[in-house]
Amino acid sequence: MVTWHALAVEDVAASLGADLRDGLDPVEAARRLGVIGPNRLAEKKGPGLLARFFAQFADVLIYILLAAALVSLLLGELSDALIILAVVLVNAAVGLVQESRAEKALAALRRLSAPRALVVRGGERVEIDAAELVPGDLVVVDAGRVLPCDLRWIEAVALKIDEASLTGESVPVGKRAEPPVDAGAPLADRSVMGYLSTVATYGRGRGIAVATGMSTELGRIAGLLEAEAGEPTPLQRRLADFGRRLGTVILGLCAAIFLLALAEDYLRTGRVEAGTLFALFLTAVSLAVAAIPEGLPAIVTIVLAIGVGSMSRKKAIVRSLPAVEALGSVTMICSDKTGTLTRNRMEAVAWSADGAAGSLLSAGGGFVVTAPVKAPDPAREALRRFLEVLVLCNDARLGASQAQDSELGEGEGRKRGDEGEATGDPTEIALLGLARRAGVEREDLLALSPRLAELPFDSARKMMSVVHELRGERLVLTKGAADRLLGRCDRVMREGTELALDEGRRTSILAEAEAMAASSLRVLGAAFRRLGPDEGRYGDGDGEEEAGASLEEGLVFLGLVGMRDPPRLEVRDSIAICRASGIGVAMITGDHKATALAIARELGIAEREEDALSGAEIDALDDRGLADRLAEARVFARVTPEHKVRLVRAFRSLGHIVSMTGDGVNDAPSLKAADIGVAMGLSGTDVAKGASGIVLADDNFGTIVGAVAEGRTIYANIRRAILFLLSCNLGEILCVFLPLLLGLPLPLLPVHILWINLVTDTFPALALGMEAGDPEVMREKPRDPREGLFARGGAAFIALNGLAEGGLALIAYGIGLRLGGPTETEALPLARTLTFCVLGLSQLFHAFNCRNFTKSLFTIGPFGNASLVGAFLLCAALQSGVVAIPAFAGFFKVAVLDAGQWVLVWSLSATMVAMNEGGKALFRALWRGRAAREQGKGGAGT
Q1: % residues pLDDT > 70 (the chain)
Q2: 51-72 pLDDT, tens per residue?
Q3: Catalytic-residue membership of 336
Q4: Are the beta carbons of 696 and 335 closer than 8 angstroms?
Q5: Residue 786 falls inside a structural domain
Q6: Which of 80, 150, 336, 425 is catalytic?
């Protein structure tokens, strides 16, 4: 790859066959376009709608469900088959709607490309479609124009480019044509280059097109984004693993039961009849139906969808359902700085002029200043002149102000008017904002004193000067880099009097400027000079440079102003909450290391110099060395898109579940590489939004904390639903399996089991997904990323409650066989009916046990989840209705129960709550005893 930024203009032109005056010949440009292709980002063709739909069925549980539906259909159980197919199709449709994130991100990248470009061809300026640009074209750029390709500047007049979306720089960077920069310079330091999709904010320039389409820096990012395959979230991985294991166990168990029963029948009778074979096969299918949680895929999807609605009301827009759960399990948030932790807007936060000083820096910011002083009137006038320089030596515009202060007084800098829609360089906008808070408006001054002459800013002088007539005096007003400006001054304004700028005063001013710079402020100085009768009256003639140089001599120094992109007010508290809940926060930015570290210190992300790494330092480390440094480092500055992706992967290699937060084009690959990407909705680019799983509608880092809490609650609700479903299904398995081992008839028919699974299971499971959650959820540490679904007592909970449900149902089965009639055949209808009712109703009662696995139901309130109460009443009515209503009773092959039998059913079913309450009480007692023993050991050791 050619390092164009390291070559002189002549060498670039020679290499590309470019004409620096007349541009490419139109015929040659057309030839190159045919060879190289259009200036567009490549479009990857994704799978068709039908292929994406069938991809939704690539899951072991889905395969088993489809097989069960086919078997049910072959056995004539049409209603069973239709119900199973409906569940599968709904799940596939929801999944289809939620995919294709990479394609959307690439489409957003293509929309960033400039539609038109101004070029010189054959000696004439023409505007063409940007897609027709080719390497070697001579491109003209002025303020406000989006760069149509990657450029090597051959001319730059006061040119500034906003590269924030590509490099993370918070301030537009000055550009120049010569000299070249070092070949190893990072993207943000290549001052002789311009890049596709960045925007010129000031000045003008001409450049040679050195790269188009996928060869540009933006195209390279598009390649990274396309190559970065989306990975499943932790819940998806666990459910996939669970599905594989469950499928294997179910198929093996069904085959074993079928063969065992077949062998037993053969040994007993000496032959196997077709009717017996069919009955045994039906038994195996019944067991499979009992074992498979048919509603699990749909339940998980619907609970996630409920979470999406809840999060959207809290300003977190979810683009992908699994992202909800992933955010709840995050252990490391990697955040971009500009626009995410900061406001992405320069603000004047410190000033010093004529013996007075003020600061908006919060405690710990680092820059120590005195409070504004009540100065005599002449000094107040000098302070006003300082502000007039900042306002008139300025080309930005502010919107209408709603609140202004009449003068710079006590507490200045703490009142901020509404700046409305501002246009221009962010630094100059910040200066206008400072002046507005002091009651000085640019438009008012310009109405009294129009600009007479101007020396624009350039990177060599690092200054800008204008000439105005104010209060009967013609003045040159100058702002610029403090050290350069002091070199042009011979006096300084103090207490309204011009004093000689001796070495002591010069040293004092430089020390003050260095103190501001040490706090990562961008420092500018202001100065002025009264002009003589013949000065400042030059035009565009050959003597302009000499006249300008004379204007910027013998100046009177007025003061300093420090600016920065300030952190968002709410971020520090949000980061503190994250750290208290065991979530690490890392800042990853393209800005300078000192600036990033200063912001990190103020936000509580890092303190020491050792906590920060630059992009060059990252390059010097191999993957193992980088992972070792990540144990401490939390600030990463001057990074490229590749660095961001590498950092995300390094954190993941350490076992972290990583969230990447960002807003720029440069963030897109890392947003996709992370477990969950979070993009800014207001300031974020379409590319970042397209590559993310969650978009923050208010660009508020604090919203992430609420989203994490919501994600944790949603995961807990999904786990509640899963443990509920599996414990219920285990009860069904035991209810079918144990009688088979004892040689008894089937206590439940397939239609009974399917009814329980898809009705009495489904509604309570959904209601558990609406549980409000624990208000102390953010005081908990993140789950171990390797933690399975059945950790923290989950497996024991399933086993014990499955045994309880199955045991209660079999007690009902035994009672029914005893009371139903003198023969087994006569007693079987009542026995199956009692088993059917107890198994279904006990599961409904069991749903209340799943609201909290340790706290008593009566502590959290039995009616605290209105959805669950409603689900219980609805399902209990349905369960009772299919038995009590003759038409349904015939379809379900059940007997009619009398009042005493209904009392028995409800009493046995409600026992589930009593057993769980006893188990929870025992657990709490054991936990308290363990805590007391550990405390005693600690006290003894002390």
Answers
A1: 78
A2: 767 776 766 556 766 776 776 6
A3: yes
A4: no
A5: no
A6: 336
